[in-house]
Design goal:
It is found in: Membrane. The chain contains 10 helices and 2 strands, in the order βαααααααβααα. The protein is mainly alpha-helical. It has one domain.
Length: 350
């Protein structure tokens, strides 16, 4: 799955929320309080994602944490909009167009990740079949087990075209990060700065997920964010550690790179020579230990895939219901714009 390395470049982003010196440009106390609360929470999430070891990010556990963090940030955006009491009639047409374009790309990425998780889950069925056959000591069952394990190795080594296309989708997201400047609207400025932070976190997490599951570090993006945001340093530290660690590991040509997947791969590699050509294992104790080890690691992988699938599905629903809510609000002026609803899909009305 490893790919040749290509030079990577930092992608510059200007801060879409720049204070001006003209009269009336300063934020009122309430919107500023809401913005500070949002950015404080975002900073804490970014720091929580910073791995203690570079190998941690190449795990399903970190992926689950990262996707859960995204869901929390997008839910906070929903809460912020509710607190700002910013009606859809106050939205600039460009803001709506930008959000709609971004949401389509996020749905595409969710679909790509879901397709890969489904593929890996289908591979787990092959492991279950092999483990079932290994419970018997007959030559016929051992041959079937070998066949299932060989099929599983081919499954995880196959390319997923939908993941290969993530790079172009991510680059499209990058183009959407810089938002139009907001004039004469304190609430609008707060919303745009908060959405700026949410988009940076989203692009980063999605690029890491695409890189890890495709086995291609070219899917990683390096984002150069505005230093004036309170969360800039936390994001810079996170990005440096995560992207740098991933590139270091990928440069070794290791396969597979996902931690839980690699553990199963190693267990399969240790077990296969013992049952080659359907021969009964000579070292019974060694075979029993390898069999048990494969069962434990396969179960751990299955649980991780299940957890991540549910979180990705939840994030998909957040984005999808957000689009639906905003479209409904555009048709009904007396409702409150809700572009990032929570996973329960509920909308708030005035």
């Amino acid at each position: 799955m490893g790919q040749p390395q290509e030079p990577h470049h930092r992608l510059p982003f200007g801060n879409p929320f720049k204070k001006t010196s003209s009269k009336g440009s300063q934020l009122s106390q309430r919107p500023l309080f809401l913005l500070n609360a949002f950015e404080f929470a975002l900073t804490a999430r970014l720091r929580k994602l910073n791995p203690k070891d570079k190998h941690d990010v190449l795990s399903l556990a970190w992926m689950v944490l990262a996707m859960e963090s995204l869901c929390e940030t997008h839910t906070d955006i929903k809460t912020l909009i509710t607190e700002l009491d910013l009606p859809v009639t106050g939205w600039d047409e460009k803001w709506i167009d930008v959000y709609m374009d971004i949401s389509v790309k996020l749905l595409d990425i969710c679909n790509a990740l879901s397709s890969e998780l489904l593929r890996l889950n289908q591979g787990h069925l092959l492991l279950q079949c092999a483990l079932h056959n290994l419970e018997s000591n007959t030559s016929e069952k051992l041959v079937r087990a070998c066949s299932s394990l060989d099929s599983w190795r081919q499954n995880i080594g196959a390319k997923n075209p939908r993941l290969e296309n993530c790079k172009s989708i991510l680059e499209g997201l990058v183009d959407s990060v810089s938002l139009p400047k907001v004039k004469n609207s304190a609430k609008g400025k707060v919303l745009m700065q908060a959405m700026y932070g949410a988009k940076i976190q989203t692009v980063f997490v999605c690029s890491v997920a695409a890189a890890v599951f495709s086995g291609n570090s070219n899917n990683l993006l390096d984002l150069d964010v505005a230093k004036t945001t309170t969360w800039a340093q936390a994001f810079s530290d996170l990005q440096t550690n995560v992207n740098g660690g991933i590139r270091d590991i990928f440069s070794l040509g290791k396969f597979p790179v996902l931690k839980e997947l690699d553990e199963v791969y190693t267990a399969v590699k240790n077990l296969c020579p013992m049952i080659q050509d359907g021969k009964r294992p000579i070292e019974v104790e060694a075979f029993s230990n390898s069999f048990s080890d494969l069962g434990r690691r396969a179960e751990k992988l299955a649980q991780g895939l299940d957890f991540l699938t549910k979180v990705v599905d939840g994030f998909f629903k957040i984005v999808l219901s957000g689009r639906d809510a905003l479209l409904c609000d555009l048709r009904a002026p007396d409702t409150l714009a809700d572009p990032f609803p929570g996973s329960n899909g509920k909308r708030f009305v005035r």
